[in-house]
Amino acid sequence: MTSLDDDQAVDTISIPLAGKSSIADHMVIASGRSTRQVASMAQKLAERIKAETGRSARIEGLPTADWVLIDAGDVIVHLFRPEVRSFYNLERMWAFGDAPTPLAH
User: Fold this and answer.
1) Rounded to an integer, what distance in angstroms lies between the CA atom of residue 1 and that of residue 45?
2) In 3D, which of 41, 89, 90, 47 has the Cα closest to residue 61?
3) How many other C-beta atoms are found inside a 10 Å radius of the C-beta of residue 97?
4) Can you say how many angstroms the Cα of residue 15 is from the centroid of all Cα atoms in its chain?
5) Does pLDDT of 99 surpass 60?
6) How many Å apart are CA 7 and CA 55, to the nearest integer?
């Protein structure tokens, strides 16, 4: 969460999954303002995870960076562009409210 905050992620939330799913203990969802910011946040987060835990996180979606998934074992992180986050609305799927509505340009 601190890493994403440092990289100016938008609307970051953490959803506790313990007892709801065996895939992870927590799911973090955050938005970036552009594909460039999403990709940068994902790369920095993966580097920080490696530095702190000694384990490499698995990353998917980095080439397009509309939706990047980072699997760090006990924590899964989803980084989105706002429009993509609103479309998939993972918050609702996990009964944790609704995704924030993207701002019109």
Assistant:
1) 10
2) 41
3) 11
4) 11
5) no
6) 21
Copy the structure tokens of residue 104. 């019109």
Averaged confidence pLDDT in the chain: 88
**Alpha carbons 81 and 73: distance in angstroms, whole number:** 23
> Of 31, 37, 41, 42, which Cα lies nearest the Cα of 101?
31
Q: Does the pLDDT value for residue 58 go beyond 70? A: yes
38's tokens:
């999403």
Average pLDDT over residues 76-98: 84
**Contact criterion met (CB below 8 Å) for 78 and 41:** no
Long-range contacts made by residues 6-9, C-beta under 8 angstroms, separation at least 24? 7/37, 7/40, 7/41, 7/44, 7/45, 8/37, 9/41, 9/79
What 3-state DSSP class applies to 31? strand
Instruction: Work out the average pLDDT over 89-105.
Output: 66
